[in-house]
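User: quick one
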Amino acid sequence: MLQIKREYKEKLIDPLFAPLDRYFKLSAGVLLALILWGAALYIRQVIYGLGVTGMGRPVYWSVYIVNFVFFIGISHAGTLISAILRVTGAEWRRPITRVAEAITVFALIVGSLQILIDMGRIDRLPFTFIFGRLQSPILWDIISVTLYLLGSVTYLYLPLMPDMAIIRDNLPSGVPEWRRKIYTILSLGWRGTHEQWIRLERAIATMAVIIIPIAVSVHSIISWILATTLQPGWHSTIFAPYFVIGAIFSGIGALFIAMSAVRKVFGLEAYIAQRQYRNLGLLFITMNAIWFYFTFAENLGIATGQQTYEMPILATN
Amino acid sequence: MTKWSMVIDLDKCVACQGCSIACRFENNTPVVSPEQAELGRAIRWNDVFPMPINPTEETGDYPNVKTQYMTRPCMQCENPPCVKVCPVGATFINEEGIIEQNYARCIGCRFCTVGCPYGVRYFNWYKPEWETPLAEHLNPDRIEGRGVLEGPVVRPLGVVEKCTYCIHRLHKARAQAVAEGRDFRSDEYVPACVQTCTGKARFFGDLDEPNSTVSHLAKSSRSFRLLEDEGTHPKTIYLREG
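Assistant: Done. Structure below.
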């Protein structure tokens, strides 16, 4: 039995089992309505074709792909905070780690859905496995995003295991049996022994090292989908690092929003405090500076080169 | 080895758009409404347009104008960027250098349309439809087989299509030669646009045959290819206006 102090129990565990309040029901209802609306529109698109969107020639890719790039981008929040900061031993990250990892998993699910929505023939999705050509950047993308999703889910779940065990052992009275069962299954027999901790720490440390190159590859490959074409403005060597930095930058932005919401709703002001905001803010500014540097470097080359095809693109920006 | 190629003499072209019309009827290209065309959804395997598309200072103001017209089928590149990016091999280059498009395989990701620097690939945003008199006169030719659907056959919704140098005509000409028990000659096959060209500005043939018309014309000092510096090596070759 993993016992925790009564004050922690009241603060951290009891809210999980409190009856759903008005605000939760209202916001969940609104979001559910939005999902149903989107699903109806998607069915309409499948029946009539992609003509129902505003796309045409030469804008063959539009909001869906922008959404894809954006959501995969903010998914980098989790990797940065939990993996990179873990490897570098920055302990201030601890209170916001889970929020960041959750952003990664949810954003990845939303992001990869965009690609499916964008396909003209969703019924032929299995063709990418049956007839897949490894030479196509889309195949690189399928492989890396799938790997990243599986890796992130594992990475979210591993450190969650001891916490699930704590909840399992400190359930408030009167909790229904099915909820007890969920926590029992999710804690995978965790007892908090020394040996279990050593194994878990080793697993997390290994995953942290593995997930960093995967995350970098995911956004590099997304940029290469654009950069491997001959489109002026896209056909550029800076695209991969540019996208990765942009991803981390927007990921930190998403993390600010999510951690502030969690802090407010669960009353975690004591845990997510000034230190987290200040350090994350510094990282944010750093990424912003690199982003500016890349943008400047890219545009300077185009502007001084004055190439026939690239220059008009820069001029319209 | 055969290497099919087209030469377009811009000096002879009168910009009548006959090639576009012939292509449309030969290949059952769907017709779209003017509103859809406004959105950039018109499908033109063969296009005729003024060069440059947007008048600039170089083209001048009336009456001191320089007008130039361009006709544009698929460039049938020897190093095709569209084929390289296709995730499922729905578009591929055959052993005679023609870029084919398999409508039964295409997943509608539109990577090839973005990848093609010439913009010759078109997506079916809606199900193709024709008004009554047109719908009754569709070309019945089609190339169909296990997992293959090509040629002028009416395209399914949500796939990409493109100029194939009228590949169904090549299939038919070959079949004819086989039926008559003789060898196929490269002058037995031309695409519809070449056959119809008013000014006889289009030539078609085998670039690997040293004495073919296209081989001779390709060596002309007037010959050039679109976006030559992109390294795509088009087999559609132009002859500059003199």
